[in-house]
Design brief:
This protein has 132 residues and is mostly beta strands. Helix content is 0%, strand content 37%. The strands form three sheets. Strands 5-4-3-6-9 form a five-stranded antiparallel beta sheet, with no helix packed on it. A hairpin with a 4-residue loop joins β7 and β8. It starts with 19 loop residues before the first strand and ends with a strand.
């Protein structure tokens, strides 16, 4: 039995997930609309692949989802990638160039790393990005 609300599974094939908080800033200003993706450094469970990702919301608040909106990510150490494009509000897809000049889009080169634990809340802190 799981004692944390964040790790409740809806389907038997789902891995337990744990909520994530944090703020993302660009040049010192909290920004919304940045796409944030987590890439499991160990490759994850090949039988149950997951692709935790989300967007920064108002005030730069980070929201990561795996199975449901804002549910978090499975336990693991992740490379974090971030893309800041033009959001199509209907499809929630990006178009146009990355405003961060692709500095944070490659998981192999990303210096942003985060570990998710079996915790009620995993705080990424403030991720400070620059356009320069």
């Amino acid at each position: 039995m799981c004692l944390f609300v964040g790790c409740e599974k809806k389907y038997p094939d789902e891995l337990p997930v744990y909520p994530i908080t944090g703020i993302v800033t660009v040049d010192g200003v909290p920004q919304e609309g940045l796409q944030i993706s987590l890439h499991n450094k160990s490759g994850g469970d090949p039988a149950k692949p997951t692709f935790p990702s989300g967007y920064s919301e108002a005030g730069g608040k980070i929201s990561i989802s795996t199975y449901a909106s804002g549910d978090g990510a499975p336990v693991g150490t992740y490379k974090v990638t971030i893309l800041w494009g033009q959001v199509n509000p209907l499809s929630m897809s990006y178009s146009g160039p990355d405003k961060l000049k692709d500095r944070y889009t490659n998981p192999d080169k990303s210096e942003i790393e985060f570990t998710v634990t079996e915790s009620k809340m995993n705080d990424m802190g403030t991720i400070a990005l620059t356009t320069k």
